[in-house]
Amino acid sequence: MSELSHLTPDGTVRMVDVGSKALSSRSATAEAKVRFQQRPTMDALRRGAGTKGDVLTVARLAGIMAAKRTSDLIPLCHPIPLDHVSIDIDLDDSLPGVRIVATTRCRAATGVEMEALTAAAVTALTVIDMLKSVDRWMTIESVRLLDKQGGRHGSLTRPVNGG
């Protein structure tokens, strides 16, 4: 069990001490997909016909807010002073649905992968909340890290085949 950074050799849960680590520039990008079960959902999104308002603006704002609150949501996750969060939402007719890409950046002693993943997931949840009156059976797919920069492991990018 001691191979896991959040466990002591005897299996006790702990928060990792990053106090002696140097600050460095770090970034992470994650994605999530929301698949619509009905073609009219894509049409409603394009028309801006969500009954709760501007779906993409509200979802983007929710993702940014979620990234800033990640340490409140995930036990043992360090609070990180984020320098930047961006959320791109693209309509994808091949799903049909939306592809969300969240990017986070900071200068800290630990990475921002969880913030990017949280931002992507909450953006996806918000898309569902905003459109559930049109399509009750949307699904969230492929919440995953695409790449990270900085830190002990340096640059990591998900292989093209999905890895």
SSE pattern: EHHHEEHEE
Quaternary structure type = single chain
DSSP strand tally? 5
Annotation field: number of helices: 4
Q: Can you give the helix content as a percent range?
A: 25-40%
Average per-residue pLDDT, rounded, comes to: 88
Task: Note the main sheet.
Answer: 5 strands, antiparallel
Overall form: elongated
Structural class: alpha+beta
Biggest sheet: strand arrangement: 2-3-1-4-5
Rg measurement, Å: 18 Å
Low-confidence stretches: none
What is the strand content? 25-35%
The termini sit apart by 25 Å
Fold topology:
Layout lengths: L23 E12 L3 H9 L7 H14 L1 H4 L8 E11 L4 E12 L4 H19 L7 E11 L6 E2 L6
Antiparallel strand pairs: 1-3, 1-4, 2-3, 4-5
Helix pairs in contact: 2-4
Please sum up the structure shown:
The chain is of the alpha+beta class. The chain is built from four helices and five strands, in the order βαααββαββ. The two termini are 25 Å apart.
